Amino acid sequence: MRTFDFAPLHRATIGFDQIADLMDRVMTSDVTQPSYPPYNIEKTAPDAYRISIAVAGFADSDLSVEVKENALVVAARKAADDTARTYLHRGIATRAFERRFTLADHVRVTGASHENGMLHIDLKREVPEALKPRRIEIASVKPTDESDLFEAKAVN
Predict the structure, then answer these.
(1) Closest CA relative to residue 47, chosen from 126, 130, 134
(2) Maximum Cα interatomic distance, the chain, rounded to a whole number of Å
């Protein structure tokens, strides 16, 4: 059984619908995930990541990298080749593709480079100052000096 009912989550929580939608999307696209082109995701620093995609045969002008609605979309369209070629073996695929990566909150793309048939996309998580943990200083109460105290007399 690969389906989950998130109805109790929607009844008891507010604002977590993105998590339920993400889980739903992951579970439904688990089987149909394309394997072309191959890619790596690596953690380069505590808050930095790099996606490397094998794009052999594509020029810079054939590739596009866009960020829209918390999704990184990498696409490639190869221009039609006008020269007539006869291949004995064609192992380098240059078919069009579109690969989507869902980005977490506060993750932004810092750059992209294309070298040696690899497209490298650098990402960084930038948590706003308001969301970072902060230390609250605890003030100590000064002990009272007995010379400041005075005698109180009972009224009754």
Answers:
(1) 126
(2) 115
What would the two tokens of residue 5 be?
Answer: 């009912």
Residue 42 token pair:
């690596």
State how far the Cα of 72 lies from the Cα of 74, in Å rounded to an integer: 7
CB 101 within 8 A of CB 134: no
Give me the residue label for tokens 């890619």.
39
What would the pLDDT profile of 103-151 be if each residue is shown by its tens digit?
988 899 999 999 999 999 999 998 888 877 888 888 888 766 666 666 6
Dist. CA 71–CA 109, nearest whole Å:
11
pTM above 0.85, yes or no: no
One-letter amino acid of 107 = V
Q: What are phi and psi of 68, to 5 degrees?
A: -145, 125
Got the DSSP string for 78-140? PPPP-S----S---S----EEEEEEPPTTEEEEEEEEETTEEEEEEEE---GGGS--PPPPPP
Helix, coil or strand: residue 61: helix
Q: Which residue has the tokens 């009972």?
A: 154
